[in-house]
Structures are given as C-alpha cells and as structure tokens.
C-alpha cells in the first residue's frame, strides 16, 4: 500500500530542511539568516519592516537575526535617508559573498533533488506546487 501523499510530502520537506540546514551550517549561517541574505541579494537596502514581511517573520525575530548578522559582519543597518524612523538593511562585502555561496549551494541541492527529472517533469512539478500553494492560501 502506498503512503498517503501528505506523509510523503512531509518526509520530502523534512529532508529538504535538514539538507538545507547542513549546507547553511557549513557556510557559518544560522537559522533565519539565509532567507535574509537571499532577499537582500535581490534588493539591497530594504527597510527592516519590508524585509520582515518578505521573510515572513515577526519584526522582533528579524531584529535578533539582523543583530547576529551585524556581529558576523554580513549586514549593516542604516537610518533611512528621508524617514529617520525607518532602518534600511544592506549587505556588506562578506554578506554578498555569503549570498553567492547560498545561491550556489541551493542550486546544487536543486540539481541533486531533480537529477533524474526531465525538464518537462520539473515544469509540471512546479505547476503542481504552485497549485498546492494556492489551495492552501485559500484556507
């Protein structure tokens, strides 16, 4: 008898999370830091509040992550040039290097995950995941 899809999906997600944590740990990154690097790599200088929304974590949690990232010299926070209440977050040179390393590592993980998939299967899988995500967002 085949395992229910939900169970299989959870197993895949857990394996992905574990592999990602191992990879990020080898890069000297702790939980919460890789998404921040990825979003800042796409758009450096985001406000802390905008970054909190994109990473989907509470502002207080993001503040703690950013504090650790500042101590590690990965990011720096600066007052917004026109709105001094807002804080913008920028990658440092080291942060940009880590961002590139994270992107490379995630690309390699994706290659492993889909090693024996045809491009058409990957595209179909993406469509399925987008539909699943949409269905769950409707709840």
Query: Kindly, what is the distance between the CA atoms of the first and last residues, rounded to a whole number of angstroms?
Result: 30 Å
Q: What is the N-to-C succession of helices and strands?
A: HHEHHEEHH
| Total number of strands | 3
Query: How are the strands of the biggest sheet laid out side by side?
Result: 1-3-2
Label the overall shape: globular
CATH topology: Arc Repressor Mutant, subunit A
CATH architecture identity: Orthogonal Bundle
According to CATH, the homologous superfamily is: Winged helix-like DNA-binding domain superfamily/Winged helix DNA-binding domain
Which secondary-structure class do the elements indicate? mainly alpha
Number of domain modules: 1
Strand fraction = 5-15%
- The total count of helices amounts to 6
Describe the structure.
The protein is globular, with a radius of gyration of 18 Å. It is mainly alpha-helical and 139 residues long. The longest helix has 22 residues, at 5-26. Helix 2 (33-42) packs across helix 5. It has 6 helices and 3 strands; from the N terminus they run ααβααββαα. It has a single domain (12-137), classed as Winged helix-like DNA-binding domain superfamily/Winged helix DNA-binding domain (Arc Repressor Mutant, subunit A, Orthogonal Bundle).
